[in-house]
Amino acid sequence: MTPPTSNGGEDLRLEAALPLSGVMNTPLFDIAAKPSPVDARNAAPRSDRKRRRGTVTVQYRADHSLRQNHALPPLAVVVVTYNSADVLPGLLDSLEDGLADIAQRRIIIVDNDSADASAIIARLHPLQPEVIETGRNAGYAAGINIAAAQLSPDSDLLVLNPDSRLQRGVARRLQIELRKGNTGIVVPRLLNHDGTLAYSLRREPTILTAWSNALLGGRLSQWLGTGDIIGDPDHYEVSREIEWATGAVLMISAATRQRVGPWDESFFLYSEEVDYMRRTRAAGFSVQYISDVEVTHFGGEYTANPFLTGLLTANMIRDFGRRHGKLSTALFRLGLAAGAALRAPFGPAHRASLKAALTAPTA
Over the stretch 279-290, which tens digit does the pLDDT of each residue have? Predict the structure, then answer.
């Protein structure tokens, strides 16, 4: 999953969260204890987009590549659910339009032992998606891997949060973008439920981003360009190569799947997409943001949950520690701890983050 945001919590993936009953007294870190700026690309004019509050309508130019008769590979849509009954029907209803003109497609719902009717809703939906019940809360990365193991090697993979909503032609457009150059992953422009821009693009976590967020706060760090969240609206107006983005909606090429391999299940939840996109770049592929393809993401209030906030902090340290030495990791950890300590009087989530920052393992 992804780090916290200051623009409505669009990064939340509660569907993959740990069941809170029965685990709040469990040691937090036992759960996961398994052995730059770049050139703009494909700029698209904003004048061809119409927007209404609460919904999104996308118009494409007459000569847009969506109209080309590309021979596209099979596409599999994977949705990992955990107690997602309230939001899953809306996503499934949007898929018929979202997958328009996709000739070869599969829709797979991986349910992580939901206590609600998520699996039943999926089975009874007119789209008749394939439903895999894990029988346990296996985590977000594991859910993706379970579905990916069912696919042919030549299939592209579209990962969706159950609280996302697709507009007509989105999937085909993203698949076309995957065919360009060395592109390995594409992500769309995300909108909040009210139609406002969701700040979904990110910088690699560094000591600077940790201390900037701690001392300046998220919004000022975004404005200065020193935090991990890219908060300049102009940055979202042009398609470009990026380092990573929130994992609510992303499409992975078949070639990337084969070369990069499975998602790292040791993260369980949060930081798994940071790791996967980093490995994608290391394998010689690029991660591309497509500015004129829009998807609505409802998100959620993850910051109200101390357990999830602590897990997020722990995984940020684990991810950083795997790639840096002891001194750098200690400075990164200290930055997270300082930020949480300054905000500890404001709620239990900050106090949980502080505890995690002080005690989380680095591997």
Answer: 999 999 999 999
